[in-house]
Amino acid sequence: MHPSALLTLLQEVQRGATSIDKAFAKLGTFPSELVPDACLDHQRLIRTGIPEVIYGASKSAAQIAVIAEAMLQQGGPVLATRVDPEKAGKVITLLPQFRYVDDARMLLANPAPTDATKYRGETLVISAGTSDIPVAEEARLTLETLGHPVQKLYDAGVAGLHRLLGKQDILRQATVIIVVAGMEGALPSVVGGLVRCPVIAVPTSVGYGASFGGIAALLGMLNSCAPGIAVVNIDNGFGAACMAEAINRDVHS
Fold it and tell me: Which of 77, 109, 141 is the last residue in one of the domains?
């Protein structure tokens, strides 16, 4: 349930527009709801600031649709990650309010309006190469759907460092930066040496054999000598977005 929906319901009860019985019935599935194969945590957005998100990789289209429909009824943004195009098409047939972003493999509905007043500033998402964009887009779209102000700077890796150095004004405006890189994973260290804000490094599985599916980039980022860098799991654009959202969120919002 979105915080604004709960607040509206309580205000309606206070002024007599909704009876206590009706409000009680509406809250019957709060804070959790059992659906086939899942128990949904509708309270998570209020409790943590980030709603429950559907991980679609191991779920069928039918399972995703059942969970998503229950979430839609609660209001607020709904996201499903790691959804392949075939599954997405089946879900959209059942729930046409969703849109699918193929690059990021995400289903999105009910995006929150961007509200800069709830955040310390904006997050900048940087991808080292074009091949890293799908993971960067997972991060950007997660932030955007949550209503977080976000900018992007793509294909700015260390093989052509002038592309990044020419954008230092954009780097310095951000209050959090997500850097997505595969291969040897050097870009977060470079960015970390240029800015004073937190940098969240995301290793990707992009690279040749010795990259070991992203492990080389992961180890490079974990061993960075630049201060102020945190590292998430391989290809975890969603996790990086959640960390950026938590860092930038105004605690009084």
Answer: 109
